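Box S2. Input/output pair 1.
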Amino acid sequence: MDRRTVITGMGVRAPGGAGTKSFFELLSSGRTSTRRISFFDPSPFRSQVAAECDFDPEASGLTRREIRRMDRATQLAVVAGREAVADSGLEAAGLDPGRVAVSVGTAVGATTSLEREYLVLSDTGHDWFVDPGYASPHLFDYFVPSAIAAEVAWIAGAEGPAAIVSSGCTSGLDSVGYGHQLIKEGSADVVLAGATDAPISPIAVACFDAIKATTPRNDDAEHASRPFDRTRNGFVLAEGAAMLVLEEYEHARRRGARIIAEINGYATRCNAYHMTGLKPDGREMAEAINAALAEASMDGDAVDYVNAHGSGTKQNDRHETAAFKRALGEHAYRTPVSSIKSMIGHSLGAIGSIELVACALAIENDMVPPTANLTEADPECDLDYVPIEARDQRVDTVLSVGSGFGGFQSAMLLSRAGNGS
């Protein structure tokens, strides 16, 4: 029997609001949530802007013990996971725990806590030999990213496969893709899948400064993220998390679940070329798109909206534009494309899952989110990028793509329930 994967619950913690309702309001209004970094003094850095979550873990339902035990990225994942499970209506008592799996993506794990602990142990870097007597008892959990998957598994009562997927900035797509594959192959009936990252820390900002990947537009933080705009000059670092409840279609149907969307196809490729460089022809991303379409038994003409990676770097936006043309042909010119990173920044491994929630909301509400701050057209980026304002239109099938350091290129297709293969 052909097993199908559907989405029956979603939870998100993103810059600009908490929960899927406020996230949708941000997307539909075209509001940006980028600002000057407030977590620490950013003045020594080239890029001083970010998209921070206004996140109070205690107000979000975490106990003080949980807050002390968990890194910020784990906290975001757990809160988003609880929201997704509640949204799905799943009851643990009615599930076989061995058939429930977890798949969590992250690019940089517990960066925030690891940097904090290093500063404590080394007396803010003054001591070459650190004093282990000052170490947090939870340091091991910060050091091993699998702790994030364990925490998420506990909230879902999941005793099936549990994995961390870390493939850089495609982690959030690939973690959901892995969950989709677990369902299709029969290893699980329910998967809590998604991604989280909280990288707004001095060490991460310094790393991206060194390679000039982030924007130096510090005097206008609100408009600093400008995907596909002629004046774009780098991405805006962000944080966040999103978790989705994936279910085998018949399992969801039997319990009368609300089916938000169906995952029809997924594929990932690597260009085996360069850690950060992208060829302008977009071949590798196009191959991932074509493979996802093949799994879905769809032609490119079926795509109603493309959720772009759209980081706002010169080479990425050029690469993507070429990939869409290569994979979709003339239909690329008729298809709206947008980047929500223009509003919520780039949360590294988390963003792919956050964008999948945006795609599902686009299908549910027949709304294409805009590319904010797109005011000057770039002749090299000549598709319909939905500038400034959201667009009301029928959306049955969405293509979401991701691009990551290391040459990773991933693509996923979501469709309205009953509209896919």
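Box S3. Input/output pair 2.
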Amino acid sequence: MIKSPPTIDPHVLDRLARSPHKEKLAEYLALLKPLDDQGRYLPFDDLRYRWAPGLDTTLCWALVKKARAAQYVSLLPVGEPTRWGQFVLTPLAHKTLSAVDRQATTAALEYMTHHIGETAHFSYLLNDLIEDEAISSSQLEGAATTTQVAKDMLKRNRLPRSSDERMVIGNYKMMLLAWEKRDEPLSLGLIRQLHGVGVEGIDDGQYSPGQFRSNDQVVVQDAQGNTVHTPPPASGLGARLERLSNWINQAQNDPLHGDYVHPLIRAIALHFAIGYEHPFRDGNGRVARALFYWLMFKHDFSAFRYIAISILLRNAPVKYGRSYLYSESDGLDLTYFIDYQCSVILRAVTEFTAAYRNSLEFAKGFNHWLEESGLFKQLSDKQRTLVQVAKSGMAKEFTAVNVKENLDCSYNTAASTLNGLVELKVFEKRKMGREWVFFLRDAANIQAEWK
């Protein structure tokens, strides 16, 4: 459990002028800043161990809060009675906003795909990445399925065999819907629709797909069963979500306007608000993350289709949960949640860009090998793409169905392309169930064939 910050007496700073505090006035005044000496926006739970021995903890916290309050920006209303979330734009947030603006826009994505040029295997990479968020978001919620099994299910379009696999399928459909609905305003209908698509068929009795909760029995618990968040009452939930939708739909897109808030900050705030209001009996986290993506898509950050935030959240679920709790326990200071999300997003965007660069470098090197070996002249454009994908490790198994989808060709063309690679002794194939599955042969064997 986290340590909640102390309640601040409005007259606590008067104590600075009195003994014994005035003897340490310089030490106290050094704390009158929102960040620590390393530029971090830490919660009381961490700061209380970092203040010098002998300093009054409540007074130290009052000074930090005074400095933060001077920089607060009111963000969005939540709860009953209404409370306003607020935040401080930290150096980490600035860095993340810069990376997102440079590397995650539709224009940046179009530049990447254009720069890749003939090396169409990058499209295969993108199709692979678009599945990652659906899978990792499900695993974050407890789905007990491996990433490889889940990818196999999605690529082969096979029916789910368990509730965990149905959860993956639901999240995948929810992410597709978020993309399809990116031009629509936020509404109660859209929130319900996302939930319905995401959880329908898993356990309808548990989830009540597309229906807002009607009682106050829903709470959020930690791994030990402790209640860590009690959502606002179900009464008035619809009105509060309408208010939230109105805030999201307001025109705040002009950087020259006084109330401008960057879309990434608004998307993170929306993520928080859905988690805070907890409108459904279950599945709230998945809907919150889907709405984050929906808002990024709406504001032309198309690269987020391929940037899986939940992979990193899944790897540190305790930090993810604590960032919620720090914000809630500190008067809805959303900076903790925003900063944690920014740290995850910055890493995810950086990894996405690195994947593109690695893909480009590999493609250049592989094309050189193809030219030198003489194999290049024997391959069609589609065959070159499949060999590049297989050599890069982005996909290890190929079927006529997934080649048809990824290369946008007919089933017969896909099958002919794959069988041609077998005839050239580049691929091998074997029957798995009712379909033929194709694999790249060992590199040494391929090169031996083409010496």
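Caption for Box S3: DSSP finds 20 helices and six strands in the chain. The first strand starts at residue 73 and ends at 78.
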